[in-house]
Amino acid sequence: MSRRDERGSMAIEMAIIIPSLLLIFGLIYAYGRAAQVNGTLESGTRDAARSATIARSYDEAKDRARRVVDAAIVDLPRSCRQSVRVTVSDNFVPGEPITVDAECDYALSDLGLPGAPGDITARSSFTSMLDPYRGLE
């Protein structure tokens, strides 16, 4: 029984396995970034809606919502911080719900993953009720 020469087989196996492992780690990192951005934006939007409900005017509510979202996303990628858009519904009447919507675009292209989209848009929305027994300006 003759034994085949197996020299170099480990190098061939590694040449096949290593790129696959790197791709898997890259995908894990990309999904982690998406989860971080979405979770942080969701949290910031929720806090912004609650902050907007204690404002005395619609303009103050918009200002509060923007400041709260900006403060919440300070640790997110720069592309998201620069492209964030915050809107507050204009039904600022005691006893009515107001909705804060926030969205931002962030890049995945810097990860170097083949086939990764360039930018992804994260969106979040939260509704909070205005106190029906308080005064507004």
UniProtKB/TrEMBL annotation:
Pfam families: TadE. It comes from the Bacteria. InterPro entries: TadE-like_dom. The chain crosses the membrane at residues 12-32. Residues 8-50 form the TadE-like domain. Keywords: Membrane, Transmembrane, Transmembrane helix. This is TadE-like domain-containing protein. The lineage of its organism: Bacteria, Bacillati, Actinomycetota, Actinomycetes, Propionibacteriales.
